[in-house]
Amino acid sequence: MSPKKTLLLLVFAGAALLPGAGVFWFRSRAAPPSPELATPMLALDRLGALRNKPLFFTPPAAVFLKPDWPELRAVMSETGALPASPEATAREWEPITQDPGAWRALDRTRRFSALLLTGDPAALRPLLEHLRKAPDWTLTWLDHTSLIFERSPARAWTAKDLDSINARFASHSRAEQVAVRVQTAHRLTALDELQTANAVLREALRLDARSAPALTELACLQAVAGRWDDALAFADRAVSADRHYLPASAARASALYAFGKFSDALALTRKLVEAAPDDGETLELHARVTHAAHAFQEEIVALEKIVSIATAHRLPTGTWRVYLAQAYAADSRSDDALAQFEEALKEPNLTPGERAFAEKGIERIKSR
Q: Is 83:76 a contact under the CB 8 Å cutoff?
């Protein structure tokens, strides 16, 4: 399991296995965030007339599409039935974001004009990677809450487009100006726009040199670039700036894990799980660390929760079941390991390596 990918997902924890949970979370001890910061209103304005054409959208966007839903549903119902609400539609489509082939099949039926990808991009990795390489789709919008892809040909988004968003927040509080940059950089990092993400985060630090979210996101960016010394240094600065900011501790744990300091990482992830026992990202990191630290009982508990969460959201569980089977086997629970390996093999999206590992595991258990 790659620590590089793990750290990428941890800046706004809780979305990879729970898409939509806490998407507009804003850490503030003062006033609540403005609508521009806390909702995808800027992205919806950018969509304009496309809001009433065949539109693919993620669960966090659904509630904001309710005013448009009668017309939008009528347009899309011409190519097949849809649930009665945008929330139910988004939930039905949610698993497709993990399977580009299934998404392509849906697009052939619906012929989407655009995709409104609101929420943490960590929850959308397979679809995002596919869209970035697809010649028939173009990224046309990126802000702190959302990404918009439009069917090509379309004007492509450029880093210069961020100027208008920053100008929109110029009269807002310094805290909101920092927050919009940090959340924007998070999306840029997910798209491998690392140079632009770095520039945006440096702007955030010029506004607030002790911003724990900005320092944490910089730790993430350094990790993606493979600079783990810098990643740990930024994570340490983030923890020093705000020891209560959990993503900073998660970033530090990921960096310690990358350096093979498993006991130190485990001490941190135990505290993180205690603070957020049902958070998917926290459980994922804890599972990786417990495995490396040979804390198999704790690994099993974390993996069981991950499988339960993924199952509830109809997300793929095969990879996690392979890991869970491995943990059961290490704990001498052969029957449980066999059951998990067999369940994993039922899923079509296992990698060839995972499938071979599961088949070998079954063979090994049955030969005993």
A: no
CATH topology for 3-32+172-315?
A: 1.25.40
pTM of the model: 0.88
Transcribe 240-302 into DSSP letters: HH-TT-HHHHHHHHHHHHHTT-HHHHHHHHHHHHHH-TT-HHHHHHHHHHHHHTT-HHHHHHH
Distance CA 157, CA 160 (A): 8
pLDDT-based confidence at residue 122 (cuts at 50, 70, 90):
confident
Q: Region 135-145: what's the mean pLDDT?
A: 98
Rounded to whole angstroms, the Cα distance separating 163 from 342 reads 52
CATH 1.25.40.10 segments of the chain: 3-32+172-315
Give pLDDT tens digits for 65-85.
Answer: 999 999 999 999 999 999 999
The secondary structure of residue 97, as a DSSP letter, is: G
Q: How far apart are CA 93 and CA 96, in angstroms?
A: 5
Name 18's Cβ contacts closer than 8 Å, sequence gap at least 6.
123, 279, 280, 309, 313
Query: How distant is the alpha carbon of residue 72 from its chain centre?
Result: 27
